[in-house]
Amino acid sequence: MKIQRAYKTELKPNNKQRTLLLKHCGVSRFAYNWGLNRKENIYTINQLPIPHIKYPTAIDLHRELNKLKKTDYQWMYEVSKCSPQEALRDLDDAYIRFFRCQAKHPKFKSKKKGVGSFRLTGIIKVNSKMVQLPRMGKIRLKESGYLPHDTHILSATISEKCGRWFVSIQVEENITVPINNNPVVGVDLCVSDKIAHCSDNIIFPNPRPLRQLEHKKKRIQREVSRRKKGSNNRRKSVRKLQKIEMKIANIRRDIQHKATTILAKNKSVIGMEDLNVSGMMKNHNLAKSVSDAGIGEFYRQMEYKTTWYGSKLITADRFYPSSKTCSRCGYIHKDLILSDRVFVCPVCNFMIDRDLNASVNLERFAISSMENLNACQSREVSFPSGKVLDNEAGNEYHIGDVLNG
C-alpha cells in the first residue's frame, strides 16, 4: 500500500543558515499577502465568485510576481523560488475552501504572530545527521537517524517555534498492511480526567496540560501585558509565553499519538462517535475542556492510523444516543444530563459508569455495522455486572506500560 507520510524533527542551523531561514519565511509571507491583496481586490469588485470572471490562479500570480522581481523585488532572488510559489498555492487552496463554505476568508499573515513557515520542493537529500535543502545546503539535525533516506521525498516544510527550527519531510512510501484479527472495541471520548474510555474498561488518562499550566501561563501573560511594546524585556516575556504554549501542545500531542497507536494496533474494529466539536466549543462551560482534550485531533489520527495497521474505524452518527441508551435492556434514558456520571436505568435498575456504558453501546454499534457491511461473524459482547464502576474501580492502563508490553 502506497501512502504519504511526514517525519518531523528539529534542525540545528548555524547563524548564517538561521538568517537564510528567516529570509525564506519572510518571502513566503510576503508572497502570500501580495497574492491575497490581488485576489481580494477582484473579489471586492465582484462581491461573489462569478463563473465568467477569471480569478488569477497560483500560476498566474507567480508569473506576475516573477516579472516584478526584476524591478521592485530584487531581494527575492536571495531565496529559493519554491518559497513564494508554494505560498501562492496555499493561498489557492484557502480560497477554494472559502468558496466551498468550508472555511472563513483568508487573512493576511503578520510577523507579530510568529515567523511562520515555508515549503520547499525539488532536490532534497537526507542522511542520518543532516538534511540538504535547495539554496541552503546541508543543515545539521538534532536527532540522528530518524528521517528516512531511502524513500521518495515530495517536499520539506520548515517552521519556527520559540526560536527553534523544525523540518517536516513528506515522503511517499510503501507499507505492508498487517492482517488484524484483534477484538472489537468501542471508544467513548471524554473531556475529564480521561481522554478515552474503552468498552473493555481500559482507560487512557488525560493529563490536561492546559489546566496544569494555566496558572503559570496567566502569570506570564500579565508579565507580557505590563512590558513596554517593542522593548527587549517584552520580547523575552513573549518567548517565555511561547515556551509554555509549546509545552502544552507537546504534552497533548504525545498522549494523543500514543493512545491512537495502541488502539489502531491492538483492535481490529473501533467504534467511535462523530462528535460536533465546533458546536461543543461554542458552549463556554465545555470549550476549555474540549480544546484541552483535543477530540478533533484524536479522531483525525484514528482515521489514518487504522488504514496503516489493518483495522477499521466505524463512526456512529452524532445523534446516536450512546450515553443515554442502557447497555443491558436498550432503554433510552432521555432525562440523563451531563452531570450524571453514573448511568442508572429506570427500567431494569442497571447501574454503570456513564462513559463505560457509552463505549459498550458503541462496540455493539460497530459489530452490527460490520455485519451489515460484509456479513462478518458476530461475537458475543460481554456486558459488565450490575454495579457502579467508577474510575478507581476500572482498570486504568498507563500508556507507557502498554507500549512496553
Write up this protein:
This protein is α+β, with helices and mostly antiparallel strands and 405 residues long. It has 2 domains: 2-174, no CATH class; 184-403, no CATH class. Helices cover 41% and strands 20% of the residues. It has 11 helices and 15 strands. The chain starts with a strand and ends with a helix. The relative contact order is 0.11. Residues 375-405 have low confidence and may be disordered.
Instruction: Give, in order, the helices and strands.
Output: EHHHEEEEEEEEEHHHEHHHEEEHEH
Major sheet: order of its strands?
Answer: 2-6-7-1-5-4-3
- Range of helix content: 40-55%
- Using only C-alpha atoms, the radius of gyration works out to 25 Å
- Based on Cα principal axes, name the global outline: globular
Domain count: the total is: 2
Mean pLDDT, to the nearest integer, reads 87
Beta strands, count: 15
Measured between the Cα atoms of the first and last residue, the distance is 28 Å
Portion in strands: 15-25%
Indicate the structural class: alpha+beta
Main pleated-sheet profile = 7 strands, antiparallel
**Which spans have pLDDT < 50 for at least 5 consecutive residues?**
375-405
Q: Helical region count?
A: 11
